[in-house]
Amino acid sequence: KIVTGRMSLIGKARAKPDQVKQVLGMVGQLGLKHTIQKVRDKLDGGAFDRNDQETLERFAVSAAIAIDNAEMHRRTGELAVAEERLRLARQNLAASSRVLTLVKQRFDAGTASQLDVSQQESLVAAVRAVIPLLDQTLRQNIVTLAVLIGRPPSGFTVKGGSLYGLRLPRVTPG
């Protein structure tokens, strides 16, 4: 019910972008505190007229969109982190496997002990064991992002990027 309600608010907002801009403009002019105070005054005994109701509905729609956008940005960041962690784990697996090959060669040449080989084999196994967990986290983030934007998760793909490509949004005072 909540998701359906939220989606219907977003649908309403998309259907009436001019009205959403008008409400945001009013909040910008009057300020959020003043707008909230007007609502509290009405709750303390004043009557809500049709205009008040429409204004509050538009404000709620705008707030729902802002919350969904913030959640989508947060999830996009988590997705980038998961991709980066998986990429690094795969690089670590390749590097530790190469080192294992070298340690085995040293063992065959008599310059490394069986303990050295066992330790490196253990390291390779530990790194290999982490990769499926990181892959699962990545897939869960992709499914969550698909649901957030209202698409079915099956067949949903995300173009990969680098964690270093993320930019923090500019925050303006006021």
Could you walk me through the main structural features you see in this protein, from its secondary elements to its overall organization?
With 174 residues, this protein is mainly alpha-helical. 78% of the residues lie in helices and 0% in strands. The chain is built from 5 helices and no strands. The protein is rod-shaped and about 90 Å long. 7% of the residues are buried. Residues 1-7 have low confidence and may be disordered.
Short characterization:
The chain has 174 residues and is an all-alpha fold. Helix content is 78%, strand content 0%. It contains five helices and no strands.
Topology:
Elements: H1 2-15, H2 17-30, H3 32-43, H4 50-109, H5 114-148
Helix pairs in contact: 1-4, 2-3, 2-4, 4-5
